[in-house]
Write a structure and sequence with these properties.
CATH architecture: 3-Layer(aba) Sandwich
Structural class: alpha/beta
Number of helices: 4
CATH superfamily: Response regulator
Helix content: 25-40%
Strand order of the largest sheet: 2-1-3-4-5
Distance between the termini: 7 Å
Number of domains: 1
Order of helices and strands: EHEEHEHEH
CATH topology: Rossmann fold
CATH class: Alpha Beta
Largest sheet: 5 strands, parallel
């Protein structure tokens, strides 16, 4: 089974960097990149991600992503290591919140952890 990760960020440079971090987490990981989580009733036709990494943490974006991809694990890479932002993201439908400054160190482990749930 292929583990599919969707990286969503408006910046092509940020998407590429995140995609490389995800690919480095292990074999058998398919990475797709999108500017926004739009399409299939909100999602994109042909994508069935197990994990979605969002860099936009507005409640509307998180809720739209949850609606478009109900079974996917959603991780928000937030701007601040602040409990208020984390609580807001989780209340909007994210499964996890990871401050961006910790992301390079923790993202690979998180991807491996979630991928392990699907193996």
């Amino acid at each position: 089974m292929v583990f599919q990760v969707l990286v969503v960020d408006p910046s092509p440079v940020a998407r590429a960097a995140l995609a490389e971090l995800v690919r480095a987490a292990g074999d058998g990981i398919d990475v797709a990149e999108l500017v926004s989580p739009a399409g299939r009733g909100g999602g994109t036709v042909g994508l069935d991600p197990n994990l979605i990494i969002l860099t936009e943490s507005t409640p509307e974006t998180i809720a739209a992503t949850r609606t478009a991809y109900p079974p996917a694990e959603i991780v928000v890479l937030g701007l601040a290591d602040d409990a208020r932002y984390e609580r807001r993201a989780l209340e909007a439908g994210a499964d996890r919140y990871l401050p961006r400054e910790r992301a390079p160190d923790e993202l690979s482990g998180l991807v491996r952890e979630v991928a392990g749930l699907y193996s």
